[in-house]
């Protein structure tokens, strides 16, 4: 009853499947040997296959490539036992062979061993002798299979490891950032091609020793050593003073720690070249300083003028008019600065809206000259226009071309001398229309010519101290011209004037003749 209750509590028992029977092959031309071996071996639970010839034995092996042990007679009609062993080794490499013979000699034993025979059974033999030899052979077969399994598993793991290492190395080599892997002794054990660009001291053709021999920035070496000593992750900006062109790199150094012992095994360093980012930060700082100065100066001047007017310190009408004119000039400079900043911002962001069409530059130039006439008269400058009416059209946005030539003519007026002139000429030259704006002004120094088209550049000289401007006009000119695949050149001498020549590609060799309807 208790047994029944126990069975009911645990439910029906599951039968554990028995392991597959060992497969044995007996190859012998004597029927008595075959049947005797079959009777003894089947009684021990083995699966037994019988073959009266070596040829039939090979057929059975082809049908059962998982055969464990073969008992083979040496002397049989047709193919002998030694030849069978040679073929069997190829057909079933993991099978263990035992030789059965009534004529055992030293030469036969050596030859059979050379053919991978494991043991001998000498006729006649007892059942105990048979089972003893078969048990040893089966043990040998199991060891061979286990060895081969472990070898295959090891090779598979090595292949997976090699694949993983290859994948990891491929990823590291494709990284744009420099990667340095060091061991606990601060020897460089791995680095990628990007490291060669950041650290010229590395030489891929030579074995790498200690870091101190290849890392020229001392601060980088100290950072890696500090990570190895403290086990802390560090991040620092490193100045690459060893490079001829200079530069900066952001170094992120992480320790490699053994999870079991907590010991630092080495470090991984990722170096990102931040030279361009540093330059951008520098330009931003310069931009903020310049804009603040350009805004502060005219605002302070206007504030002073208004304070004087408010306090009634200027009673002379002419003097009052002069103060108001100066205030207006300062405010106009502020408006110009805001307009130029917006233009530059739109160009850099790529949000400039352009209506591209064939434009007549002679009409645009005359329009600009007329627009700048009052400003030129106020400064005592005369504008001369010498532009032929048959220039071929240039494709572009009309407003941008107006802004382009307005900036050039405005500069010619602003930096001119009293009773000076600004001359605008144009001509058709090959596939380009060339427009030259010349002035008789103060000119540009040799150093100024090198920096002329940079943003916010204004040459500081006694002759230019009263000229207002943003320093953005010529950089806008250059951006516009380059957008239309043209180029701008400048020739200048101090106190001799300047000439700016703009070349823009034209679509036609000559302007198409006007239709009769155009003349009415």
Model description:
The protein is of the alpha/beta class. It folds into 4 domains: 127 residues, Response regulator (Rossmann fold); 99 residues, 2-Layer Sandwich (Beta-Lactamase), CATH 3.30.450; 76 residues, Orthogonal Bundle (Helix Hairpins), CATH 1.10.287.130; 167 residues, Heat Shock Protein 90 (2-Layer Sandwich), CATH 3.30.565. The protein has 14 helices and 17 strands. It has a 5-stranded parallel beta sheet, sandwiched between helices. Helix 4 links the parallel strand 3 and strand 4. Helix 3 runs parallel beside helix 4, helix 9 runs antiparallel to helix 10 and helix 11 packs parallel to helix 12. The longest helix has 48 residues.
So, the CATH homologous superfamily of the largest domain? Histidine kinase-like ATPase, C-terminal domain
Proportion of helical residues:
40-55%
CATH C-level name of the largest domain: Alpha Beta
Principal-axis shape equals elongated
CATH topology of the largest domain: Heat Shock Protein 90
Any low-confidence stretches, pLDDT <50, length ≥5?
Answer: 1-11, 512-520
Number of separate domains? 4
Q: How much of the sequence is in beta strands?
A: 15-25%
Please tell me how large the radius of gyration is: 48 Å
Order of strands, widest sheet: 2-1-3-4-5
Helix count equals 14
Please specify the SSE layout and strand pairing.
Layout (H helix, E strand, L loop, with lengths): L1 H9 L12 E5 L3 H13 L3 E5 L2 H10 L5 E5 L7 H11 L4 E6 L4 H9 L2 E6 L4 H48 L3 E6 L4 E4 L1 H6 L19 H13 L3 E6 L8 E10 L6 E10 L1 H36 L6 H33 L7 E3 L1 H19 L2 E5 L7 E3 L1 H17 L6 E9 L2 E8 L6 H5 L22 H11 L3 E7 L3 E9 L15
Helix pairs in contact: 3-4, 9-10, 10-14, 11-12, 12-14
